[in-house]
Design a protein that fits this description.
This protein has 331 residues and is mainly alpha-helical. 44% of the residues lie in helices and 4% in strands. The protein has helices at residues 2-8, 19-36, 41-47, 51-58, 63-79, 86-92, 113-125, 132-135, 139-147, 168-172, 199-209, 229-238, 256-261, 278-288, 320-330; strands at residues 217-218, 225-226, 264-265, 274-275, 298-299, 305-306.
């Protein structure tokens, strides 16, 4: 059944289902369950077995549970993205100077993704739905919260769909098991006391005025910030704002633990690099080592070897990779 559910709900994290489509998916899933149990519809009717009993016998969740869990997992992943990522910007972006109510707040039927995501968060967190972006930052706790949420299956006559014309998720939201004794919705910010008119205003205030702090990597030379460590490493090799050393730097100090993990040192004098195996060392000595004869590198006052570009730039490059990046971007 795991393979069947994966194929049936592939890409369901971005679906906006109507009542009719949800009902068709539910009927297909229950037909697969009866086929796996080798029961016909007549047997189920004669034995008075409901859908929840069939799911309990097979040990699989209901269709609405899988839709809710898949959607909440994807929303948590989007909330943990960097603000410059397109999914994060699309989900949390707002129209500037917007003062009118949305169609969902006016009572209209919601068939867009943001309305469906709001229903998911209301079903999962209840009164804390406006703060779901902060709660999702803890990945392990968010996974436990999503996996613990269970939704009962529809009966043969659609017992959970009481208001025809509303999405099935809105009717199922009242049957989520973790929501017991939910307090009235509080529209006041817990940090600064701001009172919003609706849930959308409170969520916009929390995500804008109290953004989640994300780790950044800053260049110590030019104070430029980067979202990850890899762009900072490339930037340090090409940063033009290199400080002048007050005194000649001595040989680089290496961690003694690296010598134990990398038992093969470079055989050239002036190179203190070590490698995991012989093939890596041979390739380094043949192509990458700046201390090898004929490399064109110049030994500086601190003992390090550096390469200089033919264009006359005074910036030294301490690896062939850094020199190649400079040539590809400049020349």
């Amino acid at each position: 059944m795991a393979c069947v559910s994966t194929v049936l709900l592939y890409g369901s994290e971005s679906w906006t289902l109507t009542l009719a489509l949800t009902r068709k998916l539910h009927n297909a899933w229950m037909s697969f369950v009866r086929r796996a149990l080798r029961l016909r519809f007549q047997h189920v009717r004669d034995l008075h077995l409901d859908n929840n009993a069939l799911l309990h016998r097979l040990g699989v969740p209901s269709l609405h549970t899988m839709l809710l869990q898949r959607g909440c997992r994807w929303l948590g992943h989007v909330a943990r993205m960097s603000p410059h990522r397109i999914p994060h910007a699309v989900l949390f972006g707002t129209i500037p100077h917007r003062s009118f109510l949305s169609a969902t707040e006016l009572g209209a039927v919601s068939h867009h993704y943001t309305g469906r995501a709001r229903m998911w968060m209301q079903s999962l967190l209840g009164a804390r739905a406006a703060l779901w972006a902060r709660i999702a930052q803890d990945k392990l706790a968010w996974q436990h919260q999503v996996n613990a949420c269970q939704v009962e299956a529809l009966s043969r006559h659609g017992a959970l769909v009481r208001n025809y014309g509303q999405p099935a998720v809105a009717a199922v939201a009242a049957k989520v098991r973790p929501r017991r004794g939910v307090a009235p919705i509080n529209l006041q910010c817990s940090q600064c006391g701001f009172v919003a008119r609706n849930r959308q205003g409170l969520a916009r205030h929390v995500n804008t005025m109290r953004p989640v702090s994300k780790q950044t990597y800053e260049c110590p030379r030019c104070n430029k910030s980067f979202a990850s460590k890899s762009p900072l490493t490339v930037h340090l090799n090409n940063c033009d704002m290199r400080p002048e050393p007050a005194a000649p730097a001595g040989p680089r100090q290496r961690d003694a633990r690296l010598d134990v993990a990398r038992p093969f040192p470079c055989s050239h004098d002036g190179c203190d690099l070590r490698f995991l195996n012989v093939s890596q060392r041979n390739r380094h000595e043949r192509e990458q080592c700046l201390a090898r004869p004929g490399s064109g590198a110049v030994q500086q006052a601190g003992g390090r070897f550096a390469l200089f570009c033919e264009c006359g730039v005074a910036t030294p490059f301490f690896s062939t990779k850094a020199l190649g990046i400079h040539k590809s971007r400049t020349h």
